[in-house]
Hints:
Blueprint: H1 15-23, H2 28-41, H3 44-47, E1 51-55, H4 61-68, E2 73-78, H5 81-94, E3 100-104, H6 112-115, E4 118-124, H7 133-141, E5 144-155, H8 161-172, H9 176-196, H10 201-209, H11 216-224, H12 234-243, E6 246-252, E7 270-277
Parallel strand pairs: 1-2, 1-4, 2-3, 4-5
Antiparallel strand pairs: 5-7, 6-7
Helix pairs in contact: 1-5, 2-4
Amino acid sequence: MNDLDPTLAESHFAFGRNWSEYARKITEAEIEEAEKGLLRLFERDQINGARFLDIGSGSGLHCLAALRLGASEVAAIDIDNDSVETTRAVLERYAPGKKWLAERVSVLEFSPDRMGLFDVVYSWGVLHHTGNMYRAIKRAASVVNTNGLFAFALYRRIWMDPFWRYEKKWYAHATSDAQARARGVYVALFRLGLLFTGRRYADYVQDYRNNRGMDFYHDVHDWMGGWPYESITADEVEGMMQELGFRSEKVFSRHGRILGRDLGIFSSGCDEYVYRRMDKA
C-alpha cells in the first residue's frame, strides 16, 4: 500500500500539524463534549480508576477527557511527533498533577512489554491509517487486560474506496496551496449536497462541534489527507475480534444501502465498536 515503512512517520499524512492547530482552540466546551463522547462508549465507572491508553492521541483531547472522568493513569501514543508534543502541551495545561505519559511510537510495534496492560484501550479513527490495519488491531488488542475494554472506530467499506485511496495519496503529498483548493472544492460540493437534502450548512457545522468536541474544517483536512487508508465491514470486525478473545459490548454501525456498502460520496464515515477482553492467554 505504501512505498515506505509504515512504522515511520514519513509514510503517513502529517496529521499532527492539523491537531496542533486545533488544540489551540480547545476550550471547556470542547472538553465537555469529549467527555460526553467517551461516556457514549463507556460507563463512568469503567473509566474511573482505570489505566487508559489512547492510541493515536492527536490533540490529546480525549486523554484529557479520560483524566477528567477519573482515569487513574493515561498513556498516549502516536507515530506523529507533532501529535505527541500537542498531547503533552494540552495535558500540561489542563491536567496538572495528573498521572499521564505521552510517547512517540507506532502501534505496529507496540506490545505489553512497553507499558503493560490497560483496563481501557481507545483508538478513534486511527488504526485504518497505519498502513497495516489488521496488524494494528491485533497489536492494540494485545495490551487490553482481562475483562478490559477496547473501543475503536474504523472506516466502513464503501463503493468509492478506490477513488478515496487515490485522492488521499495525492493530497498527502500535495502543496499546501493545492490542498487548500481541494478543500474548497470539497466544502462547496458538500454545502450543495446539504442544500439538496434541505439542511443548512451553518447548522451542520455548529452541530458538528457537539460531536466529540471536534471541528468540521479540521476534520475535512484530516479526512482528505488520511493516508494510508483502509476500510472494513462490521462483520469482518466481529469475526476478527472473536478470534482474538473479545466479546462485543456496543456497536454503532450504519450498514450499507447497496449490496452491503454505502456509496461514500463525501466520506466513508466510521463505525464505532466497544469490545471486552474475555480471555488474556
